[in-house]
Amino acid sequence: MADAIQQVLDLFRGSVTRGTSGLAIHQPEELKSSVMDQLVRLAVMGIPAEAEAARWVLWELGQATGVRPASIHDLYLARGRGECAGFTVPAINVRMLAYDTARAVFRAAMVRDAGAILLEIARSEIAYTEQRPAEYVSVMIGAALREGYALPLFIQGDHCQVNHKKYATDPEGEVGEVKKLIAEEIAAGFYNIDVDTSTLVDLSKPTLLEQQGLNYARAAEITAFIRSLEPAGITVSVGAEIGEVGMKNSTVEELHAFMVGFNASLAQQGRLAGISKISVQTGTSHGGVVLPDGSIADVALDLNALDALSKAARTAYGLAGAVQHGASTLPSNAFGNFARIETAEIHLATNFQNIVMDHPALPEDLKARIRAWLDTNASSEKKAGDTPEQFYYRARKKAIGPFKREMWSLPEPTRAAIAGDLEKTFGFLFDQLKVNGTAALVRKYIEAPVQHHRTVAAIALDDADAGE
Q1: Which residue of 61, 67, 340, 436 has the smallest Cβ count within 10 Å?
Q2: d(C-alpha 222, C-alpha 277), whole Å
Q3: For the chain, what percent of residues have pLDDT higher than 90?
Q4: pLDDT higher at 290 or 32
């Protein structure tokens, strides 16, 4: 392993060297050069030994420069105490062209001095985009270093969701799978976790407390599990969810029922930190509702409900507020509402995928091959009566993993054209969500302690013990 690390460091031609614990950076500007592109590509596409070494180097470069994975927990609790307000944190799901997309995020953020930004990936996305947590963290760190971004990184496990059907047949096994993923995420540097047991809400029960019973009990159990895994100096920001996205709209009464049950359940586990935010349903759906011509239907977003839910979360429980999912495909004039009504966080995913997939710079033959792959490999996604436009729109996310290497290998001018449009979109969203200037709040409330991922000396000792 030590030899593999040295081979990776040789890319920097002496500007980065090994110390007794971590790395010494002699020429910081080299981190913003094309060498970083090579390093990140090794972390993603390299053979196992190269990838592991590249990921270690990226992590340690982040530790040395302050670009460290961090939890947004303390900033969210400060918002719950009324110490800051007036913005909505964007949680950006980076599904494809991850390095170029993340670089665009950081460029847009730096121009605006924005720091309250989450980069996330959901349980389902990890599978179909073929991005395991360690890879994802490495790419986000590399993108930040390449652009000269110098703040902590808030990397989030979105929708660590219990599957209702699997839970019905094997409840402990399904919860165990979610815990297994969360353990992998925290070990990789995901210090923000959205626990989603909202799939277990049972609206047939007679009372709200009973309806939310499995939801709050399992959410508390998983929260306690998260607390048992936290690195020293880190309190993971945990979110819970009271309404499944795309289903019935949430109410303030449901929020109170969940929180009463959750807090009581968590107290039984000991004196543990609770959640910092709560996700609700107010009329959106993941990806939007696609019409026969491929356009997206208008959404009846209940802003009054979202406003009331956020207020209740803050005033009664000291949380940052409510979280809105499924929002990226909303009309552009909708985004200014979220900061106005003090929505804590908004999740944005599908529209960024759409920008890439529909971009005029993306080769037409590649688009055609993606459609052909979907015809063969994703036919189960097709619903009765679907037009081709509806089928391809709904299913094309499944092609992200199989075409990942080809997307990463597109010519630089093609990727730059796509990333340029992504950057404009991120900039628009940051403006609308009022996160400009939040770098100061990050510096005030967030500590990201140094965490070395095993020292070079320990790695060298392991190698010596192995006879290398």
Answers
A1: 340
A2: 15
A3: 84
A4: 32
Helix (H) or strand (E) holding 159: strand 154-161
What does the pLDDT look like over 410-447, one tens digit per residue? 999 999 999 999 999 999 999 999 999 999 999 999 99
Strands 16-18 and 345-348: unpaired
At 254 the three-state DSSP class reads: helix
Residue 79, classed as helix, strand or coil, is helix
For range 8-27, the mean pLDDT: 92
Domains of the chain as residue ranges with CATH: 2-67+452-465 (no CATH), 73-357+410-445 (3.20.20.70), 364-405 (no CATH)
Residue type, 273: A
Q: Please report the sign of the dihedral spanned by the C-alpha atoms of residue 325, residue 326, residue 329, residue 331.
A: negative
State pLDDT tens for residues 299-326.
557 899 999 999 999 999 999 999 998 7
Q: Name the token pair of 371.
A: 């459609």
Q: CA separation (Å) from 291 to 110, 283, 287, 288, 294?
A: 37, 17, 12, 10, 5
- Is the C-alpha dihedral spanning 348, 350, 355, 357 positive or negative? positive
Dist CA 436 CA 432 (whole Å): 9
Instruction: Inform me whether the pLDDT recorded for 244 exceeds 70.
Output: no
Six-digit token string for 151: 């703040």
Q: How many of the other CB atoms lie within 10 Å of CB of 248? A: 11
Cα 51 to Cα 134: distance, rounded to the nearest angstrom:
10
| Residue labelled with tokens 């990201």 | 448
> Residue 385 burial (CB < 10 Å; 0-12/13-18/19+)?
exposed
Mean predicted lDDT score pLDDT of the chain: 92
Cα distance between residue 262 and residue 258, in whole Å: 6
Specify whether the CB–CB gap between 418 and 360 falls below 8 A.
no
Structure tokens at 189: 């540097």
Q: Is the pTM of this model over 0.90?
A: yes
At residue 465, does pLDDT exceed 90?
no
C-alpha to C-alpha distance for 154 and 237, rounded to whole angstroms: 10
